[in-house]
Design brief:
Elements (H helix, E strand, L loop, with lengths): L4 H5 L9 H4 L17 E8 L2 H18 L3 E8 L4 H11 L5 E4 L1 H9 L6 H4 L9 H5 L12 E6 L3 E4 H6 L11 H14 L13 H7 L16 H15 L12 H9 L5 E3 L2 H10 L1 H5 L1 E4 L11 E7 L6 H12 L1 H8 L24 H13 L12 H15 L5 H18 L2
Parallel strand pairs: 1-2, 1-3
Antiparallel strand pairs: 3-8, 4-8, 5-6, 5-7
Helix pairs in contact: 13-17, 18-19
């Protein structure tokens, strides 16, 4: 997967897996014995990483094979497009690689099908090496176990346009810190610009409900609950923004890329991003870059959202000791740190975020963003439920659109979305 905030955010792709065709199901992934000699041929699949990181992975594999004589790692890299479908086809056909780059939502159906190795059983000795929230991100509600090593993380701040804030009579040096402050600033911005400048460009997603403090699912993982009073409150606020043009009129069909372009051109005053975006601002919109404001993600819970990638071991691998050893090798502290210095991502290993690279200021905005993100990741949460499929996202988005357009009340819209998502959840088995 291309490594950026937007790419990681888009990584939640539903795998429609024919469970009966590819595993035992039941209590999750298998308990293949990972003890024994580390040897033999294994396959390692990544998600659109070869183009930009070929030397890194070739070096990583060569070092592993040198450390464990008698091992041979075949590296496969799949394009971003159709990755979930490829995993689904391999799972159904019994050709899933031994070690697979996944996101939490891709793990869920594989674990339910008995195809993802339970690391709590097979590799529990490594658990303490990772951030607690990162290790937990590959657990599946309703099953016991953890089904992938956490790999790289990402999160990011909110960027805002100081010039637009000033023109609307808002303090450019005191950006909003709470949801109430964001909503108030947005309404003022819309009023002062006669609706020409929106503050926000995206409708609320499941992670936004999570950050707002909404309970998204019951603890058993058997039903969704984002239609509670707090969920209705958030959607009602967005309806108010939409009516006032404080939420961009095109938000109903916006993508992260289109929202980013609106921010670049000054049509939107605030937009989420990552350290990677600062370089784009500098090149594509130097005037914006000169007026860029950087503030923390808005959250009512005290925990920012994180995007996480993982490395899963196929529970049916014939080379479990080598597969587990390699998955751990890819994601250990040393190799995560070296990868993080090549691209703006963050390690999921405990203690790594205390490295001077993530704590020492040098006066640049890029470093400032990196340090702030690293600090927030120590107790960040992956708000998107691992069982929340792409179809469910579509159902929620459609119902949110109806509420914003006044076709349904916020309460009715969220009730309908929860009903549809629960139905899809039951179909997952």
């Amino acid at each position: 997967m291309p490594i950026s905030r937007r790419a990681l955010a888009a990584a939640a792709i539903c795998v429609v897996l024919p469970l009966s065709a590819c595993g035992s199901g039941g209590d999750g992934g298998g308990s293949t014995d990972a003890s024994g000699k580390i040897e033999g041929d294994i396959t390692f699949q990544t998600w659109n990483l070869r183009a930009n990181f070929k030397p890194y992975f070739e070096g990583l594999i060569a070092d592993f094979e040198k450390k464990y004589p008698g091992t041979d790692v075949k590296w496969i890299d799949q394009p971003a497009e159709g990755y979930a479908d490829k995993i689904s086809a391999d799972a159904a056909g019994g050709t899933l690689p031994d070690v697979v780059n996944v996101s939490p939502d891709l793990v869920a159906p594989l674990a339910k099908a008995g195809l993802a190795l339970d690391l709590d059983k097979a590799a529990s000795q490594y658990k303490k090496e990772y951030l607690e929230g990162a290790w937990a991100s590959h657990r599946i509600p309703g099953t016991a176990g953890t089904y992938a090593f956490p790999w790289y993380l990402n999160t990011g701040p909110l960027f805002y346009n100081k010039s637009l804030f000033s023109k609307a009579g808002l303090d450019p040096d005191q950006p909003p810190k709470t949801y109430d402050e964001v909503f108030a600033a947005a309404l003022k911005m819309a009023k002062e610009t006669d609706g020409k400048v929106a503050t926000l460009a995206n409708v609320p997603t499941i992670e936004d409900f999570g950050r707002y403090g909404v309970e998204l699912m019951n603890k058993e993982g058997t039903a969704f609950s984002f239609n509670d009073a707090k969920g209705v409150e958030l959607l009602t606020k967005y309806k108010e923004l939409y009516d006032a043009k404080a939420l961009d009129p095109q938000a109903l069909t916006a993508t992260p890329e289109s929202s980013g372009k609106k921010f670049l051109t000054g049509a939107v005053a605030m937009n989420p991003g990552s350290a990677l975006d600062l370089g784009n601002f500098k090149k594509q919109a130097p005037n914006l870059y000169k007026n860029i404001g950087i503030t923390d993600q808005i959250t009512s819970t005290g925990h920012v959202n994180m995007y996480v990638m993982g490395v899963m071991v196929n529970a049916q691998t014939k080379r479990a000791p080598a597969a587990v050893a390699f998955a751990h090798y890819v994601t250990d502290a040393e190799h995560q740190m070296s990868f993080a210095k090549q691209v703006a991502i963050f390690p999921s290993t405990a203690g790594s975020l205390d490295d001077p690279y993530f704590t020492k200021e040098d006066g640049t905005d890029e470093t400032r963003v990196r340090i702030a993100a690293a600090k927030s990741l120590k107790n960040a949460v992956n708000y998107t439920p691992v069982l929340f499929s792409e179809q469910m996202k579509t159902e929620l988005r459609n119902e949110v659109a109806k509420a914003l357009q006044g076709k349904e009340s916020p309460k009715q819209a969220l009730d309908n979305a929860v009903e549809a998502c629960d139905r899809l959840l039951q179909q997952q088995g």
